Amino acid sequence: MKTNAYALIALISAAGIAHAGPSNTVSGDIVVQEGDIIDGSAVSSVGSPFTNGNGDVGAVLNLDDGRRAIWYGSGVIFTSDMALPDTVTGGESTMGIGNNGEFIYSPSFNGNDSVWGQNGLILAEPDQAPGYAPGFDITFNSRPQMIDDGSGFWIGGINDGAGGTSTVERAMFRSNPNGTIDRVIGAGDAIGNSGGLSINIGSGVDFDYHVSGNGANMINVFTSDSGSTTNDGVVAVNGDMVARESLATGQGDNWDNFDHVSINNSGNFVFSGDTDGASSSDEFIAFNGDIALREGSMIDGLTLGSSVDALSINNLDQAAFIWDTAEATETLFFANNAMDFSSAIALLSVGDQFDMDNDGVGDWLIDDFNASSAIGPGLDFAEDGFVHVEVDLESFDGSTNIEAIISVAVPSPGAGAILAFAGLAATRRRRV
């Protein structure tokens, strides 16, 4: 946890530096970085950060000796050798943490694709698929996430019931705190409000999904059984369609494809993608089904480009997102009110100087944002006043480049008053 003094200084930095272009200096903290020593081995790479309801950060770390480690809050709570005599190796960067030390990630268990948590193995291929008739077995487990009470979610593949190993369909599963596993939704299920569409057999359950921290709401991207690739893509909230390819956006064009999704405890949601409009303005972010921002718009002096790289909404109806920008390659933005994305501000851009010790002098250059659209989500924005993001940091002479999870403060509505006290002396604790 950051001290109040640090939060004040970081807040002043985030609110007080104008983002008119690259090479600004932005203060923040390094959570964990390549080269840190964990249980006698150096961190070789870090995964995307994920948060719980307390604002703690979780991540999958790769160690030089080949092990994986689970970061939780301020340190590591699990290394893969703890599973011995079983062999647990690898692991996607997508994971999740609960509010009380729970975690979920997706390693290989004795050579079989699995999901693993604080109590050990949750499910592995070729286990019986939960909620299916005997003989329908699991073929993979991927993109795990977790909500505040420690319930885990993931996308699993299922075979044809005849003992084969090929994936015939997908489903979304939930592991409960009592150890049981439920099938949440999957191939063949009806999509509400869609006029009779169902989730397509095969890859109909997309890897893009999100469940609110309280477990009351979920948002998914599905491929429906419409029979045409021009209109089979659907965004669904709690199983009901809220957007579909080829249907009107209400802004003179039609939905064309969908990418990142996020939903909060109140059921407010955001998603990104493309429309079939002009290529200069087809990329978008939508809030509760209405387009809120488009490619080509100017936000805080930066021109939005052709790709939204990450997107998240928190329980305060604030949003954080990474968007390619014409002036700075990629920029991390913060919208204090998701109903007004146009007033978003730039927090951090590629090319900015990152000040990790709050002395007002940059220590690193932001070389790249590492949010992955393929293995995402790349942002998981909590309510603690900080955005946590995976970046590449480069030394000023270009000789060193490391991966790190960093945190940057977001300004509050009262930031202007706080700036009046910028002359006050303050200190922060150093990362250990």
Description:
- The chain is mainly beta and 432 residues long.
- It has a single domain, classed as Methylamine Dehydrogenase, Chain H (7 Propeller).
- The chain has two helices and 35 strands.
- The chain has helices spanning 4-16, 415-419; strands at residues 25-27, 29-33, 37-38, 41-46, 50-51, 57-63, 68-72, 75-79, 88-89, 96-97, 103-105, 108-109, 112-117, 120-124, 138-146, 152-158, 169-175, 181-186, 205-211, 218-223, 233-237, 240-244, 255-263, 269-275, 283-287, 290-294, 298-299, 302-313, 319-325, 329-335, 345-349, 353-355, 364-369, 386-394, 401-409.
- It has a six-stranded mixed beta sheet with strand order 1-32-33-34-35-2, covered by helices on one side. Strands 3, 4, 5, 6, 7 and 8 form a six-stranded antiparallel beta sheet that branches. Strands 9, 10, 11, 12, 13 and 14 form a six-stranded antiparallel beta sheet that branches.
- The longest helix has 13 residues, at 4-16.
- The chain is globular, with a radius of gyration of 22 Å.
- The N and C termini lie close together (12 Å).
- Mean pLDDT is 90; it is low at 1-22 and 414-432.
Brief description of this entry?
With 432 residues, this protein is mostly beta strands. 4% of the residues lie in helices and 45% in strands.
